[in-house]
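Researcher: Re-running this chain for the archive, since the previous output was lost when a drive failed. Same request as before.
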Amino acid sequence: MASRRKGRILAFQALYSWDTGYQTGDKSIPDGLLDFPWIEAPAKPPSGAAYGSTPVQTKPLDEEVAVFSRLLVTGTIKNIDAVDSMIKKHLENWELKRLNRVDLAVLRMSVFSLMFQTDIHPSIVIDEAVDISKEYGTDDSYRFVNGVLDSIRKTLAAGTASVTTDESAQAAQ
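Model: Regenerated structure tokens:
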């Protein structure tokens, strides 16, 4: 399952990158985003190479990791309205636009999984989100992310949430 962890990290990073250019209503995925170009550059240039020279991928991206990451990214962006709506409903004294972008990217990816990937146990989704928040977020990010996701998990388990995808919203119009 280490490959799923790597996949979630790549998806979180891609969603963070996407969010920096996100315009309300724009659900397009920029060219190259799903190629994860940032993983190609080694942390340190190979011996004798100048830093900033052509990136050299130190290890090829595992296809299983890439497929899982792409699924998370495209699914989250495709259903961004439903995902963001669910997050908004579970924020106390916060607005979505005020959230730290790292926390928001982790929440979006995880809420997509909780809402639409019912084959993955919610505790796994939440544990992974907490771990990613600890690694990439602020000192308190993991507590915040855990609280919001646990609240969403309870709502979904109780069946009191209405999950509306873009396709079902368009069909209803």
